[in-house]
Write a structure and sequence with these properties.
alpha+beta; 5 helices; single chain; 4-stranded mixed β-sheet; 16% strand
């Protein structure tokens, strides 16, 4: 997890630099580490906002090129799916949810996408909708 956390930090702060330079996000298979942290920290993200974490399991399905990365039981009613890059941008709070190709099925999964974070500490203000450089 410590190596994944460093990869997440490099991705997030590297994206800050890319945004400042007007460059689009860069996707690589290393995004799996960022996504894994966000999935593992699901309950933590709710707790940071003084919300009770959901009790139901989630299924997360993310695509990167010709791969699909999955977490959770295949039959879970609460589901999140979409592009791995967009999920990583959302989970590092580098993009607003409205600017990401990530969707949820189920009220708990939908609530999670509003609070998801792949890092420790307070959530911060996040980004405004439409502020993404694409």
């Amino acid at each position: 997890m410590m190596a994944s956390a460093r990869i997440m930090e490099i991705f997030a702060h590297g994206q800050d630099v890319r945004d400042a330079l007007g460059l689009p996000p860069a996707a690589s298979p290393r995004l799996r580490h960022v996504a894994h942290l966000a999935v593992a920290a699901r309950d933590y993200a709710f707790a940071q906002r003084r919300m009770d974490p959901p009790t139901e399991p989630f299924r997360v399905e993310l695509t990167h090129k010709d791969e699909t990365w999955t977490w959770g039981p295949a039959d879970a009613a609460q589901r999140v799916h979409g592009a791995a890059l967009d999920f990583a941008l959302l989970a590092t709070r580098r993009r607003h949810r409205q600017d990401c190709a990530v969707s949820a099925e189920g009220p708990d999964a939908d609530a999670w996408l509003d609070v998801v974070q792949a890092y420790a500490g307070p959530p911060g203000p996040g980004r405004e909708p439409g502020s993404a450089i694409r």
